[in-house]
Amino acid sequence: MSAPAIPAAGALTQRKRARPTDRGASLVEGWLRSHAILVYLFLYLPIFVVVLFAFNDTTRRVTQWGGFSLRWFEVALNDSVVHRALTNSFIVAVPNAILATLFGTMAALGLQRVGKRARLVFDALTYTSVIVPEIVIALATLVMFASGFDAIEAVFGLKLNLGHPTIIAAHVLFNTSLVLLLVRARLSGMDRSLADASYDLFATPWRTFTQITLPQLLPAIVAGFLLAFTFSFDDYVITTFTSGPGSSTLPLFIFGQVKRGVTPETNAVATMMLAFTLAMLIVGQWLLRRQARHTSGPTEKGSMTGIIADAR
Amino acid sequence: MAAIASAPRRDAETSRFRSRLVTFALVFPTGLWYVALLVAPLLIVLVFSFGIRARNGGYEPAFVLDNYVRALSRPEPFITSVQMALAGTIGCLLVGLPLAYFIATRAGRRKGLLILLLVVPFWTSFLIRTYAWLIVLGPDMGLAGWVQTLTGDDRFTILGTPVAVLIGLVYGYLPLMVFPLYVTLERMDRSLVEASKDLGAGRWATFRQVTLPIALPGLVTGSILVFIPMMGEYVIPQILGYGKTYLMGNALVSDFLENRNWPNGSARAVGLIVLMFVTIATYLWFVNRGRGSREVSVL
Amino acid sequence: MPGWAGRRSDVADQDLDALLARMARTKVNRRSFLAASGLAGTSAFLAACSSSGGTPSPSTATSQAPSGTAAASASATSTAAASQPEVESELFMYNWSDYISETNRDTFKERFGVETFQYDVYADNEELIAKLQAGASGYDIAAPTAEYLPAMVQEGFIQKLDLARIPNTKHINKSFKKLWWDPTDEYQVPKDYGTTGILYRSDLLSKIPASWREFYDMVKGEASGKTVFVTSQGDVFTFPLKMLGYSLNSVDKAELEEARKILLECAPHLLALDSDTYGDKMATGEAVLTLGWTGPLGQELAPLVEENKAGYVVPSEGTLFWMDTWVMLTDAPHPNAAYAWLNFIHEPEIQAEETNYNLYATCNDAAKEFVDPEILNDPAIFPPDEVIASLEGAQDTSGNTQRSDIMEEFKQAIGG
After folding, report:
1. Cα–Cα 20 to 30 A to C397, which of A20, A38, C83, C316?
2. Which of C97, C118, C284 sits opposite A245 (nearest CB)?
């Protein structure tokens, strides 16, 4: 059921377009827009270089151009070690993102309902998990796992090993805090009147949650999921210490290459991943837009943001 | 219809219990993780910090305060890190706030896409992204090379200077600033801004009194999420700064990996954690102070 | 040390300690040290010694219970005869990146029926040791640098090898045997060796530095702002200590203090402290001098080397000699496969393939005839006799606080 169109508060200002301050308005608009464009250029300039150097016809040369070649793509496609590493990266990053988002969101909601003292303890722990330097938590977590595994083996005779589960567990810690912080930032000052209205209309708590609260939280949840995935995918230090035989992720492979010289193969892998991601994005947006056209009216409904805008 | 009013007291009790159960269930997983994977390892670090280095490196049980004495008598890496992290955080703020504002309020349909495009670069490897900056800023084919040609100053460099490090930091941490800001700004009701303008408030006053307070939780979260990890950052300064700065991250790696002096490293780490904790607590108290009962309940 | 030879018992803790302590305390004279470590005698070094061909001794079937994992087809071949424990179908190797020849790996897999050759990577020794020290396990073979061996033995990370199962070690030049880090040769099999020295761009310098002292002058002079040092402590200290005529492993307070002064004098003149991209910086001319290793010669600097515009030199006062080794970790899940690898890797042709691929010198005499002559004759990779005599093996001095303090001070002074 579509929400009513956004109230025409803007209609009031339409008449006032001629006001002198509106020259300033277009300046601000122009500045905001160009700033955004510059930032995206800034973000993608190195990416452009990464892609460019995937075609670099040279070995182990980080900053020099040696000619145009496709051979590194061939190497990357045939390199089973890289395939394994990439697969491991996904095996770790996706469950980690799901768990972290789930736990973080739940905790954010739950923390609204606990007493002040409990919330303070939780806050302190959330801070701490962000503050602890990676090398410290990585080493200490390994020590803990190792001692824990020894103890378990002594008591239950069950031999556990480092591997995907240990990496995921370690990643989930930091990423849960991340999601928690994002969702709470969103929750704070969230308009309670809608929820209250829902209760007044005899909706069950669950219904209120799914139809009012959750949609309002969605940007934070999605953002949290993205960040959690990204951090896990790109993590090096913690992964190094909590991984076992056969569970090396892509960053481990790449950083390991440094001592012998990073080859353009890494660039080729990155380029292919980028191409794949962008392709998915385009397809995704196109699909959503198609769905929008087929279902309802001319609003932004159907796109991700439309879903969110609708929740208002 | 009539059943609504029946048996209120028992319903209230069971519903309160159920409510408690729900609350517990909601926070339990995170709580469990914190205890098992944060508190437990940190206790280990704490124990280590009072020990001594075993003959071959690592930890040997002992109870001495030497490590803390040593850590406190060498504040230089900490100070350098603070300077760098502050600069980096301010940089992220200056670059990130207008961007977050733009996406949240001006991007309309493209909001989601723009947000996604912010993280896509991070799905390439951190290392090759940083190496790419070596090229972009480099004296060979990059920016420094161009400036050299244009000005004739052969010794002009960007790499190996704090500027290069700053660029690398902002580049690496921008999403951490933008996401929280976006998430709070996005829910801002535009009609408030419009109303403020209709009431005659200037652009700046509107920003200060309407936009900023609403963005505050995001700003606080963003600055914390950026500043703290930057305190531990050392790879970007190593590569883009040519290893010319000695930071907490370097000190910790030196302790734990090169010298295998876990007690020393642990003491340094504990010191860092405590100091950061106090800093954040102070920061938040300061921010919450002027807000009355309406806390910036981000934390 | 004559007393060590032939002692096949475990290296007792106190004996190794005493040895290390003695070396640390005494002002180790270069020659006496070399005599002690068995590197003396330049002629012995390159001469083909005990590795007379002859029939390989048949491997005896030892009482190693085969691992529980399902064994595949073939067991060890080339040395025929007696029954061999079955080689498991997996091998877990933990090594530096790209440090074995792929051809060799494939040959090994085929010959021994090892289906899964898991090759995981660590970025440097410190990472390996830290992980092992924190309790990690699960790998069969690793390749640490020799100076870490005593620590690894004492901590119980690596297991004693049954030398009867690795007959190909007879090809190893005896100058690499019975060294102080493994006097009974029961804990490691040599992998390759090399030196730390000076990389230079001869076309961008007035002359090639032949000694640490010349290097020192150039760093402060014409190469100021264009010199790179690698980040590892042991290598950095080699420069001032050797220049002053001391042992590069010195832990003597006065000597280290002198070294400190030199390091602090050089610090403001450095372009970077970097172990990873110095080859690149040398190739573009951003750097003209590096205190580093030979790796870039075959990679980033290869074309420049061919044009005689770049090169590597071992300074005349002497320098550090490092050796990488193969070890079998305690609790190796696939010991038979591990033994098979250790023996396999020292078959002459296999070993030569390693050298040709990695461009680091081999300790295996029999392999030399199969090594690419260009590599064999490259003095940077296979140092000549006079240079060999001036080499000193690196020790693990990571526990010395004076050294780490100086290093920290040095790092903070870089770049002014």
Report:
1. C316
2. C118
Chains in contact with B, where contact means 3 or more Cβ–Cβ distances below 8 Å, are: A, C
C32-49+87-194+322-383 with C197-318+391-415: one CATH topology? yes
Give the ipTM of the model, two decimals please. Answer: 0.86
In a shared domain, residues A134 and A97: yes
| Gap from C344 CA to chain A (nearest CA, Å) | 22
Tens digit of each residue's pLDDT (9 = 90 or more) over B37-70: 999 999 999 999 999 998 888 888 999 999 999 9
Beta-strand pair C310-313/C197-201: antiparallel
**C-alpha distance across the termini of chain B, in Å:** 43
Task: Read off the pLDDT band of C83 (50, 70, 90).
Answer: low
- What CATH number did the domain enclosing A286 receive? 1.10.3720.10
Is the domain of A95 the same as that of A145? yes
Per CB-CB distance under 8 Å, the chain A contacts of C277 are 62-63
Question: Which of A54, A80, A98 finishes a domain?
Answer: A54
- Among A35-39, B183-187, C53-57, which is the least confidently predicted range? C53-57
**Distance (Å) of CA C408 to CA A105, B153, C275:** 43, 33, 16
Q: pLDDT band at A209, cuts 50/70/90?
A: confident
DSSP H/E element including C404: helix C401-413
Is A147 contained in some domain?
yes
Segment C250-258 shows an average pLDDT of 95
Same domain membership, residue A204 and residue A301: yes
Question: B134: which chain C residues are within 8 Å (Cβ-Cβ)?
Answer: 277
Q: Are residues A239 and A121 in the same domain?
A: yes
Please provide the CATH number assigned to the domain covering C197-318+391-415.
3.40.190.10
Chain A interface test: which of C101, C120, C277 (most A C-beta within 10 Å): C120
Residue-range definition of the domain harbouring residue A14: 1-54
- CATH, domain range C32-49+87-194+322-383: 3.40.190.10
Residue C298's pLDDT is what? 85
Q: Do A95 and A149 belong to one domain?
A: yes
Residues B256, C233: C-beta atoms closer than 8 Å: no
> Where exactly are the structural domains of chain C?
32-49+87-194+322-383, 197-318+391-415
What Cα–Cα distance (Å) separates residue C286 from each residue in B165, C131, C272, C277, C305?
Answer: 18, 36, 10, 11, 16
User: Do B243 and C414 make contact, defined as CB atoms within 8 angstroms?
Assistant: yes
The two structure tokens encoding residue C354: 């390693």
Model confidence over A119-138: pLDDT tens digits? 889 989 998 999 999 989 99
pLDDT at A228 over 80: yes
Tally of CB atoms within 10 A around B36: 15
Range name among A11-25, A153-167, C43-57, C344-358 with the lowest pLDDT average: C43-57
Mark whether A141 and A11 lie in a shared domain.
Answer: no
Structural domains of chain B, ranges and CATH numbers in brackets: 74-298 (1.10.3720.10)
Answer whether B254 sits within 8 Å of C404, measured CB to CB.
yes
- Cα–Cα dist A196/A194, whole Å: 5
Q: Could you tell me which chains touch chain A, where touching means 3 or more CB pairs under 8 A? A: B, C
Query: CB of A303 within 8 A of CB of A285?
Result: yes
A271 and A238 assigned to the same domain? yes
C121 in A contact zone (CB under 8 Å): yes
Q: What sections of A113-204 are H helices per DSSP?
A: 116-131, 134-156, 164-187, 192-200
Residue A25 lies in a domain: yes
Query: pTM of the prediction?
Result: 0.81
CA distance A284 to A289: 9
Largest CA distance in chain C: 67
Position A306 pLDDT exceeds 70:
no
Is pLDDT of B90 > 90? yes
Q: What is the DSSP letter of A195?
A: H
Number of domains in chain A: 2
Q: Residue C291 in 3-state DSSP? A: strand
CA pair distance C360, A252, nearest whole angstrom: 24
